[in-house]
Amino acid sequence: MISRRQVFGLGAAGAVAAGAGALAARTLPAEPPAQAHVEEVFPFYGEHQAGIVTPAQDRLHFVAFDVITTDRAELAELLQEWTAAAARLTQGKEAGAFGATGGSREAAPDDTGEALGLPPSGLTLTVGFGPSLFDDRFGLAAKRPAALADLPKFPGETLVPEISGGDICVQACAHDPQVAVHAIRNLARIGFGRVSVRYSQLGFGRTSSTSRAQATARNLMGFKDGTNNLKLEDADLLREQLWAAPGDGAAWMAGGSYLVTRKIRMTVETWDRTSLREQEEIFGRDKGEGAPIGKQKEFDPVDLSAMRPDAHVRLAHPSAHGNAHLLRRGYNYVDGSDGLGRLDAGLFFIAYQRDPRTQFVPIQASLAKSDPLNEYIRHVSSGLFACPPGVVDAGDYWGRTLFA
């Protein structure tokens, strides 16, 4: 196996070329073999942050931080340090120049070391800023985008405040869970004394595909999820539905996107005792192939009239919400048991969009009101974040346009 250091003896130019090649390979009708995945590298610098339209990796470590410093300059400095570390980590290097074993033996290493010898595994790191960052601590209130309006309370949700919200989030996606955990651990280490971890979530088995070269994944209810998800190949729709534009009202967000997260616990034991017929009618799709009710294949055009009026697919369909689309890249999770013999399991929902007020909010309002799936699920956490545009080069950093 090639080590992380060996892979990137090629330098940044090699990293960019490898990343471009990886994206090009995604236009083929079959996914690359597993070994190709772990050697995969995505460019860190670009117009948009990686980890949004990037073909969804298999593992997630998501974290939300509270900022505990009240010094604006110190926060901006932290974002610069994080960006430098992220640029290294996503290219298969260690978090700091001296790594886990270099530098003075009398000082703490500037990398924790658990990813030594591991390949890059397609690691991406994506940052976002929550509504709470725009209070009076840092003089950012006037720069809060209108699209970052607090989400309304939806019927039936039972949110836990301790695992909701957050000033800053970081989404780490990779094909190796240790690589993703290593990245978040090192950002938390670098941020010590300036940020504290509010909550974090591990995820596995992506539940959505973000490229047509990927097979549609399944959620823990056994159904294919995100068949009609926005894909990186949908250039026109991405411009219209995903990326914030200069005229949207917050110039610093141009080229960025808005992230909504929801931790959705599934009562899998009850679901598992439900008949196959009812399961399929609830979703509006057949369980094996994933075909819409009344059709034969997964990607056959949906006939909404063929399914029950409250079928999940019908309630969430773009035609019911002014053609609103979401780019979803959620993950399954299992957090052990609840102490009563039931799995604490479900979906960590992740969706990117241009404006949650006209995309996520009306879709979720419809689902919360009428979706028969509500008998089997419970929303326990929620997050909303403004993810700024990509980092252009080594002189740029996450959020620079916000702090300018």
From TrEMBL:
GO biological process: iron import into cell
Pfam families, alphabetized: Dyp_perox_C, Dyp_perox_N
GO function terms (MF aspect): ferrochelatase activity; heme binding; metal ion binding; peroxidase activity
Cofactor note as given: Binds 1 heme b (iron(II)-protoporphyrin IX) group non-covalently per subunit.
Cofactor needs: heme b
Keyword field contains Lyase: yes
Span of domain Dyp-type peroxidase C-terminal: 216-391
Catalytic activity: heme b + 2 H(+) = protoporphyrin IX + Fe(2+)
Record's keyword terms, sorted: Heme, Iron, Lyase, Metal-binding, Oxidoreductase, Peroxidase, Signal
Domain spans labelled Dyp-type peroxidase N-terminal: 49-204
Broad class of enzyme this protein falls into: oxidoreductase
Location of the protein in the cell: Cell envelope
InterPro entries: Dimeric_a/b-barrel, Dyp_perox_C, Dyp_perox_N, Dyp_peroxidase, EfeB/EfeN, TAT_signal
Lineage top rank: taxon: Bacteria
Gene Ontology cellular-component terms listed: cell envelope; cytosol
Signal sequence residues: 1-24
Family classification: Belongs to the DyP-type peroxidase family.
NCBIfam families: Dyp_perox_fam, tat_substr_1
Biological function: Involved in the recovery of exogenous heme iron. Extracts iron from heme while preserving the protoporphyrin ring intact.
Name of the protein this chain belongs to: Deferrochelatase
Record organism: Herbidospora galbida
Name of the gene: efeB
